Amino acid sequence: MNNYKTADQLLSEDAILSKQADIALLKIKKLKLREEKANDIIKRNVIQAMTAGLIPIPALDLMTLTHVTFKMTDDLLKLYNVHHDKIGISVIRSVVIGALPVVTITGLGSMVKFMPGIGSLIGSTSVAISAGGLTYALGKTLSEHFSKGGLLNEFSIKDIVPQFKSEFKEGIKLAKSLDKKELEAQELIKL
Length: 191
Prior knowledge:
Helix content: over 70%
Strand content: under 5%
Shape: elongated
Number of domains: 1
Distance between the termini: 74 Å
Radius of gyration: 22 Å
Number of helices: 7
Order of helices and strands: HHHHHHH
């Protein structure tokens, strides 16, 4: 029996290997494109959340922020083709509520807006930055979870706390780096 391969067999194996390499490259490009789309979704919603924080009416800013975070979550679920139901949405609500210390700070900033004059300015600024950080942290945490094939019912608040805190710090930096002109240039709040 001959252990040598014919030229046709070698060409056929090369073609198969080439196709496999092309498929692998295509998968990598697809993953990078999805990550870019996720980052775009997160940034757009950070800007919307910060804009919500600038709303001068106390409590309305927090209601708008909640809407923005749920909308972002829905956009990420669609991007990663993650099926969700009422239980899954409850998990996300728990995550948002689980970020209670951040939400409390944001809420206190919102209440400062009741003070005439300077209260509105200070409150709006602190709420806008906190809202941007919160939205960024939630978006990045969800995006990473979904990119690994995670589902909503597998999402554990205890497991994500360290990442969420780290992402919140990064989100605050991002929020502070966005200047007012960029915020105003965006189509701000889509209710």
